[in-house]
Design a protein that fits this description.
Low-confidence stretches: 1-22
Mean pLDDT: 93
Number of domains: 1
Radius of gyration: 22 Å
Order of helices and strands: HEEHEHEHEHEHEHHEHEHHEHHH
Helix content: 40-55%
Largest sheet: 8 strands, parallel
Number of strands: 10
Distance between the termini: 44 Å
CATH class: Alpha Beta
Structural class: alpha/beta
Bound molecules: zinc ion
Length: about 350
């Protein structure tokens, strides 16, 4: 009796597998996320912080009240006034595990940036999913010489230099201090992702006084592209909100790409769609790449996917943004592309 039951159950199981197997095993179309961070969950202060998906309104702040902007911002993040939000991971281990879980389930290949030792951990945990990127900030990394970066690159520690967050240290994309690094990237032929665009509100008050939103000007990248015509660079955050200047730069410099990290969740959805659709309408559909800017909130990734999926652009244009453009920019070979598509 017992063995009969076993047989019956096995038969049902086999039937189930044969009926649902091909569908259940189907790999979702691949996505390349050009903007994932590998960092500590303590990066933005105390635990329990939430991130609106999306932010819907930017409230007025009275600087005459007792609360400082950093206190106000933290309070807003602990108790956000928005309909949907996602919670930060509880530990560094959970952050990596939860991010990689989303990447695995949604078939995402991520350009994961951070300190070399942290990125190495992520790469070891998911070698097929992680493209190692090296975070760089002219303020924090002033002791990291171009020679050191060249050595790290030669040792295979990173494939992409990014996120370059010089804007947070008060440096423009064309700052003379960064010129040797641009020259190195051009010489060694590694791509660079540089933050040019929006920052958290009041960043100058939050992060030591140096950040300036006036440095988020896509035109400040122009001298760099003229001096280094072989440079492979993408503007992280797509120069938002300067759509005019981003389009002007993309029209003028066809080697330039942009990615849409954080935009889908930091602005009202209608504005995100309008911005993305404007770039596509301007003919830039082959130069826009998907990016989430996942920091310590893994839920940002799927919120961003959903935002792109619901944009009023063609299905083929969405596939370009989700995968094809980044695969071209990163020069993935046919074999790699086939593997990502489970072919
Ligand atoms: Zn950024």
């Amino acid at each position: 009796m017992k063995s009969q039951m076993f047989t019956a159950a096995t038969a049902v199981g086999l039937l189930f597998i044969s009926m649902t197997g091909p569908i259940a095993a189907k790999t979702p179309p691949p996505i390349i996320d050009m903007h994932v961070h590998a960092q500590s969950v303590a990066s933005y202060g105390p635990p329990g912080q939430k991130f609106c998906t999306p932010h819907t309104e930017f409230k007025p702040f009275d600087p005459g009240v007792a609360r400082s902007w950093p206190e106000e911002w933290l309070a807003q993040n602990l108790q956000p006034d928005c309909e949907q939000w996602v919670l930060a991971s509880a530990s560094d281990e959970a952050l990596m595990a939860e991010t990689l879980e989303v990447m695995e389930r949604r078939n995402i290949i991520g350009v994961v940036g951070g300190a070399p030792d942290t990125v190495a951990k992520w790469k070891a945990a998911a070698p097929q999913r992680v493209v190692a990127a090296r975070a760089f900030n002219l303020g924090r990394d002033r002791d990291v010489s171009p020679q050191q970066l060249a050595d790290e690159f030669a040792q295979g520690a990173f494939e992409v230099l990014g996120e370059v967050t010089n804007q947070y240290a008060g440096y423009a994309p064309n700052a003379p201090e960064f010129e040797p690094y641009w020259a190195l990237a051009e010489e060694k032929d590694f791509p660079v992702g540089i933050h040019i665009g929006t920052m958290p509100p009041g960043s100058a008050y939050l992060f030591g006084g140096a950040p300036r939103i006036s440095l988020a000007d896509p035109f400040l990248l122009e001298d760099v592209l003229v001096r280094h015509p072989r440079l492979r660079v993408y503007m992280m955050h797509a120069g938002y909100p300067h759509a005019d200047k981003t389009i002007a730069m993309l029209r003028q410099y066809h080697q330039l790409y942009v990615e849409i990290g954080v935009l889908a969740v930091t602005m009202p959805r209608a504005e995100f769609h309008a911005f993305l659709e404007r770039l596509v309408r301007a003919g830039m559909g082959k130069r826009i790449m998907f990016g989430s800017d996942q920091m310590i909130w893994p839920g940002i990734i799927e919120a961003t996917i959903e935002a792109v999926e619901t944009a009023d652009i063609a299905k083929t244009q969405k596939r370009d943004i989700f995968y094809n453009n980044a695969a071209r920019f990163l020069r993935f070979d046919e074999e790699t592309i086939a593997r990502h598509h489970d072919r």
